[in-house]
C-alpha cells in the first residue's frame, strides 16, 4: 500500500470571540500544576482522516466555536521565573493543516481505527 500526502492549506483557527482583557493588561492565564509541567513533553499530534467531500470551512467553523467554550485549548504555554508555568489564554488559536491523502493498493477503507489496523 502506498500513501501520498499533499499539504493543501495551513491556517490558524481562532475563537469567535477573543478572551476578555482590560485595556493594557495581559491576557488571562491558567497556572499549571507540577504534574502538568512534568508531562509537558507528552504532546499529542492528532490526525483525523475524513472521506471526501468534507467541507474544511465547516470543520474550522466548528472548531472556532469549541475554542470559545474551551479557550485553554488555543492558549500558549509560558514560563515565568524558574517555577511558574502557565497557559496564556491569548486567543491565538490552533494550527489546522488540511491535507489530501491518496492511497494506492492494499485494503483501503477496511480495518479498525487503531495503529494495528
From TrEMBL:
Alphabetically ordered keywords of this record: Transferase
Gene3D superfamilies documented for this protein: Chloramphenicol acetyltransferase-like domain
Name of the protein this chain belongs to: Transferase
InterPro entries the record matches: CAT-like_dom_sf (IPR023213)
Pfam families: Transferase (PF02458)
Organism: Nannochloropsis gaditana
A molecular function (GO) term: transferase activity
Superkingdom of origin organism: Eukaryota
Amino acid at each position: 500500500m502506498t500513501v501520498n500526502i499533499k499539504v493543501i492549506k495551513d491556517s490558524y483557527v481562532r475563537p469567535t470571540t477573543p478572551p476578555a482583557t482590560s485595556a493594557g493588561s495581559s491576557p488571562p492565564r491558567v497556572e499549571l500544576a507540577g504534574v502538568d509541567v512534568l508531562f509537558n513533553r507528552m504532546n499529542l499530534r492528532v490526525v483525523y482522516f475524513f472521506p471526501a467531500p468534507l467541507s474544511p470551512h465547516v470543520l474550522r467553523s466548528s472548531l472556532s466555536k469549541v475554542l470559545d467554550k474551551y479557550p485553554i485549548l488555543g492558549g500558549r504555554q509560558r514560563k515565568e521565573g524558574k517555577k511558574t508555568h502557565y497557559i496564556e489564554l491569548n486567543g491565538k488559536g490552533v494550527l489546522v493543516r488540511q491535507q489530501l491523502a491518496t492511497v494506492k493498493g492494499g485494503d483501503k477503507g477496511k480495518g479498525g481505527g487503531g495503529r494495528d489496523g
